[in-house]
Please model this.
Amino acid sequence: MRAAADDTVPPVVIVTGGGTGIGRSTARAFADEGARVLIVGRSRSTLDECAKGYDDIHPVVADITDPNSPARIVRAALDGFGRIDVLVNNAAVGRFGGLADIDRETVEAMFGTNLFAPILLAQQALDALEATRGVVVNVGTAGALGLRSWPDNALYGASKAALDFLTRSWAVELAPRGIRVVGVAPGIVNTGVGVRAGMSPEAYDGFLEHMRARIPSGRIARPEEIAWWITRLAGPEAEYVNGTVLALDGALSVT
Model:
């Protein structure tokens, strides 16, 4: 991502869930293009691993569901760099289970991370984003697009479908303030997320192989491919793209 033509100051990007998977690849992609990047996550070790070898990636250890975290994250960016150009709401958690199996703790954890935190962080960053004519990028999932169902993973899909609706609504609401809001909806990406959600490594590998056979493009995506699109959508060349949720799933969602 390059700075706008009339602005030679390196852009500042916040990436939540920046320690692993798509978040890690996104942070590094922005840094490779000259941005200064704040990566947010709960694990110091994974954040440090992401930042290793990158002088312009700066870890902020925070639980984004903590009520004090949005203000602390935005303050870290403004105190450190004086601006915010891009907010990437990437952090998410998933838990498998049907309606009969879930409990209140699971519901609160998933919606707290996947939905409430992006809302409150974007709200906290509004003035800073307006000052730079900035961009919010919400990371959803292709599994929640259209009229699809997702038995045993409905909470995750519902939280991401809600995030897509916010993307479209915020784009209209915030356009007068010069802020763009866009989304990406990744399909099956090999990030290890299934294992973190409770699957065994063997089960996760079997899931990837099963899905590979269903994807028209015939393969699983790499995190770097999703990161490339996030940086493109956030760049000044894409300033007419607003309110769009881009499916990145090898055509699976249109089968």
Remarks:
- Residues 93 and 110 are 6 Å apart (CA to CA).
- The longest helix spans residues 104-132.
